[in-house]
Amino acid sequence: MTRVFGVLGHPIGHSLSPLMHNAAFAARRLDGIYAPFDVPPAVFAEVVRGLVACGISGFNVTVPHKETIVPLLDTLVRDARALGAVNAVVAHRGRLTGHNTDTIGLMGALAELGWRPRRCTAMILGAGGSAKAVAWVLTRAPGTHVIVANRRLDRAQRLAEWLRPLRPRCRIEVRPLEPVDVRGCDLLVNATPIGMAHDADIPLIRGLGSRVMVYDLVYNRTTALVRRARRQGCVAANGVSMLVYQGAASFEWWWHRRAPIAAMRRAVERALRYNS
Ligand SMILES: NC(=O)c1ccc[n+]([C@@H]2O[C@H](COP(=O)([O-])OP(=O)(O)OC[C@H]3O[C@@H](n4cnc5c(N)ncnc54)[C@H](OP(=O)(O)O)[C@@H]3O)[C@@H](O)[C@H]2O)c1
After folding, report:
1. 237 Cβ inside 6 Å of ligand 1
2. All domains of the chain, ordered by start, with CATH?
């Protein structure tokens, strides 16, 4: 029987996940279909229960449901439990397991650039959901120094207060977003939407030199930050790879097979070219 998957969000029209997963199913000749579901918050729990009752095999969850899904699940894996946010669910015999793919997606993307997990100094721009996942991943290495630079300092402070007791062997610092100085940093990660729409809003960054690796979570274009970093000799990439590795993680949990990364990336890049 055809296995059914999907992504639940509100709005959902912009999501590239249906294209990426249907391309993956086709590449692996799997009998599955992946659909977008626009689910307003008021009916979210009802919809989840309905989809599970109908036999859905798994689904992704995006804004604004990543936290509200948590009480509806039977099991949470470690990263999802720590972050309090879920964006991939495996449904097996009516039981739901929640995962967070931001962590695994970031690790895959950084590994592709040659980054090896290690003690480092990292600057993270942003203090929202994805910045939290970035900080959580990077502080796996004891001795790491993370600087969270955010427009609203109180939000950066909340992130630091959450992380410090969980990572007592790391140093978590907060700073206002502009201007930031990355001298002494090994890694700079943009976890804000800055650069998504246009180039003018690139934050003022000082001290960017070739020893800093730059990863920009924004995936719809090659941002001004990535272009500037490359001009200065840095290894730098935008968020397409993270998106693809996140999709690959969901695929592998659902199908227990290796994800066709190249086919998934081609589908995403084709859609981005078409939309631009
Ligand atoms: N490539 C991928 O796979 C991937 C995965 C996850 C997220 N993302 C991207 O990462 C970005 C952040 O996502 P999120 O889920 O973390 O969002 P979020 O929870 O809403 O957090 C947004 C963060 O960006 C900051 N911000 C928003 N607009 C800003 C502006 N104009 N100037 C300065 N700071 C601004 C916010 O600062 P305040 O706290 O001051 O409001 C906050 O820290 C989005 O562009 C998203 O598409 C990509």
Report:
1. no
2. 3-100+242-275 (3.40.50.10860), 115-234 (3.40.50.720)
